[in-house]
Amino acid sequence: MTRREGGAVVLAMAAAFLLFGLNTTETAAMPAYIRASGGGVFLAGAQNSAFVLLAVVLRLYLGPLADRRGPRLAMAVGALGFCIPALALPLCDDPYAVVCLHLTQAVGLAAFHPSASAYLTAVSDPAVLGRRLGTLRFVTTAAAMVGPAALFPLIASAGYPVFFGALALAGLAGLALTLLLPTAPLPGSAAASGRGGAEAEPPAATGGRRREAQGRPVRRLGAAVRDLRRDQVLLLALPFVLGLGYSVVLNYGQALSREAFAGINEGLVFTFFSAGGLAGSLGAGRAFDRLGARRSVAGLLVLMAGGMAAMTQGAWGPTALGVGAAVAGAGYFGACAAFSATAGRLVGERRRASFFSTQQSALDLGIVFGGLGTAAALSAGLSVGAAYLALAATVAVCVPAWGILFEWDSRGEDADGGH
């Protein structure tokens, strides 16, 4: 690794920490701030779903932008999308204006993380790609843990204007770091020297994509879907399933912890889940580089399914729930990192950022639909524990499906000896 490449990686990680800390902290604070500004319960609850869905739509535009103009530019666009609304929020106390500003930040959610993954893929040697993308997932998870704990006390001590002002400063610092990034691919990097590990794209397919790139976003999406290989379909379908499972933990983890952690801290289940995610993100990167995509992903899916099933045994005491949450977190965050690393090696450079964007959208849609579907099932009489077990079983079914249907190996060969 050259010094310039190492510097680029450090800058990208630091920018990701600041900008995702901003996003997570602000998103967590939004419902209470909207209520404090006079907004209703429905507005406070619905705006985060609208935020995610808008980001999914915007990725139809911003993914191809990163492919055409480079991931560094798209990262800067995402940083601006986070930063500019954060500068205006301290001056705003109308609930509908607050929601509009928060929705504007969907540009940041849509552009930054997929482009950061594409950037790190472009500047990294294939032998360490899993570790790089695993570290990126570690950094964003750490930001989600540190941000609210560090900045929420400002709300009580100094008020929302100071709180949002601190977020704006974090956003400006993240934007500055993004602008300092060297353009990818770097001279001497894996991508520049032809060692990027991505498959060659047929001339006819790439020519068709160039023509489609000038068309409407929906038409571009249709062309991309037609060009998907079976392995790439799995890299979109399984993150959707991960999102379904994560939504249950996110929305109903407190319900499971109410009995096990009564009198202690009901929020500990999320701490255990995130702590497991930190370990899983780093471990998944190393497992991907050493074992390849097939075995590493299968093991991480088993962890997530087993952890979710163990979380339903909270009646055994807080240990079962805490350990289950940590194992599920390791599986979820680790699998996200492994899927990103697999896509980084499998998908051609000309459409890598678009694929990362689509993969992130699949995960986000799983979170949205998982929350809606689970809420409907609970309203119909299903217990929270049964919902966990159902989604744990769904994740578990993906393990043999992945082993049977996935063909490509991350070390550059098909599992059956082809390619």
Key phrases:
single chain, 419 residues, mainly alpha, 15 helices, 80% helix, globular, disordered C terminus
Secondary-structure blueprint of this entry?
Elements (H helix, E strand, L loop, with lengths): L2 H34 L4 H29 L1 H18 L6 H10 L1 H18 L5 H30 L1 H20 L23 H11 L3 H11 L2 H31 L7 H24 L1 H19 L6 H29 L5 H28 L4 H22 L14
Overview of the molecule:
By secondary structure, the protein is an all-alpha fold. The chain is 80% helix and 0% strand. It is built from 15 helices and no strands. Helix 2 (41-69) runs antiparallel to helix 3 and helix 6 runs antiparallel to helix 7 (160-179).
Brief characterization of the structure:
This protein is mainly alpha-helical. It has helices at residues 3-36, 41-69, 71-88, 95-104, 106-123, 129-158, 160-179, 203-213, 217-227, 230-260, 268-291, 293-311, 318-346, 352-379, 384-405.
